[in-house]
Write a structure and sequence with these properties.
homodimer, alpha/beta, 434 Repressor (Amino-terminal Domain), Rossmann fold, 3 domains, 4-stranded parallel β-sheet, DNA-binding, LacI/GalR-like_sensor (chains A, B)
DNA sequence: TTGTACGCGTTATCAT
DNA sequence: ATGATAACGCGTACAA
């Protein structure tokens, strides 16, 4: 059967196309009686408005892009997507997720992006854009909201986790537990795409200094530069090797993420080091796996981040004021079984 | 700056709109020289084709819907999405994910769905549709591909995991390990939305029978009916209580999913039952958490499922033959630390 | 409150 | 190979 158009409905209902349009969208003034007639006709013809045609006529696409810096099946991204969708979906928006993994793709993406009016807004999750990309973005009229992006300047609004707050809490915990030598363990960070994790490294150093740790007592251990992505276990092996060859072996470590923390715990135990008796470990994120691994960690809530981003998109789109345009989510320490007070004999 | 239209490009390049359209899409015959001219003009004007206008004119929306039965941040759904996106994205399609959690929503969704031509295809993941929904779906001209749906009849193509193969492998493993009394543990299954897990229950019973287990030696334990979703630990507590009050306590169990398995293992250990020495546990899915928990499980690969679904969508959309329209993915047993051969003294 | 008529930016058909 | 022009299906001033 050929799809019914608004004209068919108008004819069947005995009104004009304009009236059908108004009745079906429920915005403009239409007599209840007329509306009923129209709805009955639409129902009989199995008709709903075409999003495409509406978009073309109105200039609103009712679509928002979610651009992620990693795959959509990663814990963080999947949660942000769910959050964004939860608030934008019911409002009639489609959200089309997409992701970029390397710099080349990024360039291509942004070179294409701003030219065509294919979305009403864009939310950018977890990565840094270079000047070119920012310029392209700015040249669009699309409202932009950032999620967990270091420099929020090029966004109309942004929401992120407070990595500094988180790392400070982690370091303070370790100090409270009596650990005098601590370390931060992370992957190699290419400088062309800056992630949240690089902030964590910085934050660790600041927190250590502020809490009275000397340079020698707060080490940062990063993986060597590598082209392809290391498996977490290979990464952990490398990090633990570096850790164990330190002049003064730390008694506690903070890892860049839960994934890294868990792999490191495993590797440490394979080396017959007891966690937490010999060494305490703190992760970052509180992803599903953290609970299973009984890992002490810093919680961030990407689902709520996504919802908040969705709300900000809505405000931007509707011109309602966004009470704080820029927000950061407080981090929460989650105490589990991989941290313990340093035994007296070990101090 | 006002957005440039195809007319502006045509004027600047000194050709007709039609030629610009042809040149930019790269499909029809256009002289290389003309194409170059057009591309230069488009570039200068910062122009790309509007997806909306193209869609309206061509009837192709270049959009495919992904409809999931649970939230998008669930392991399975997130992976399917990633897979679908990986193959459809590079072909120029947007994929708009959406999800439905209860029956009411489902009805509303399908009542709206087929009427407007807002997507070129739909992929439906992980749930059963009732007759009404199927009819609505059929009344659309949209190609439909199913992912992990029990009855594939209403789809043009489908791909799923082979739950039967998986459960048979699990049961055979337990038999090989010498377990003579086994059980299946699962949540309460409302009958209005049938999930993959109900298949697993069936499969367990069949596999048990075929492998020589009596009725008394192969128990199925399900949670009591409940309105709200139980937390996994509450569920596990209930299941373990039922398990421990069985006349003949099994020495091995299969759980509906990894999540349930892990919660059950935890509960068992809290009851001072050793896993696997006292009781073996097998999960289902091989999600991230399974590895962390060192859980023996049946692997399914939703990422590959999604990719395959994406390929089928492409075939359907292009009219190329889909070599098998219906496929099922073999399940693979992953041996880890929660299963062990039944000690001789326990037999 | 309702109807008329034009425009949204492209594709597709038919000439040339 | 290229150009003119009619759809595509709806939103929206403006008029009634």
């Amino acid at each position: 059967m050929a799809r019914a158009t608004i004209a068919d409905v108008a004819k069947l209902a005995g009104v004009s196309q304009a009236t059908v349009s108004r009745a079906l969208r429920g915005v403009d003034k239409v007599t209840p009686a007329t509306r009923a007639k129209v709805e009955r006709a639409a129902d009989r013809l199995n008709f709903t408005l075409s999003k495409n045609a509406s978009s073309l006529a109105s200039g609103k696409t009712m679509r928002v892009i979610l651009l992620c810096s990693g795959k959509l099946n990663e814990w963080f991204n999947a949660n942000v997507l769910q959050g964004v969708y939860e608030v934008l979906g019911p409002e009639g928006y489609d959200v089309s997720p997409s992701f970029i993994v390397d710099k080349k793709e990024s360039e291509r993406y942004f070179a294409q992006l701003p030219k065509n009016r294919n979305a009403d807004a864009i939310v950018i999750s977890s990565f840094q854009l270079d000047e070119t990309a920012r310029a392209e973005l700015r040249s669009t009229d699309m409202p932009t909201v950032g999620v967990n992006i270091p420099a929020a300047s090029f966004c109309d609004a942004a929401i992120g986790i407070d990595n500094f707050d988180g790392m400070f809490k982690a370091v303070r915990l370790l100090r409270s537990l009596g650990h005098t030598r601590i370390a931060f363990l992370g992957d190699y960070i290419p400088d062309d795409m800056v992630y949240s994790t690089s902030q964590r490294t910085e934050a660790f150093l600041e927190a250590a200094e502020e809490n009275g740790y000397d340079d020698g007592d707060a080490a940062v251990i990063c993986a060597d530069e590598h082209g392809v992505t290391l498996s977490k276990s290979d990464l952990a092996a490398q990090l633990v090797a570096k850790l164990l060859s330190l002049p003064n072996m730390p008694t506690a470590i903070c890892a860049e993420t839960d994934q890294v923390a868990i792999a490191v715990v495993k590797e440490l135990r394979e080396q017959r080091l007891r966690v937490p008796e010999d060494i305490s470990v703190i992760g970052f994120d509180d992803a599903d796996i953290a609970q299973v691994a009984d890992l002490t960690t810093i919680r961030q809530d990407p689902l709520e981040l996504g919802r908040n981003a969705g709300r900000k998109v809505l405000s931007l789109l509707r011109g309602t004021p966004l009470n704080p345009a820029y927000e950061s989510q407080e981090a929460a320490l989650v105490l589990r079984g991989t941290t313990v007070r340093l035994p007296a004999d070990a101090r």
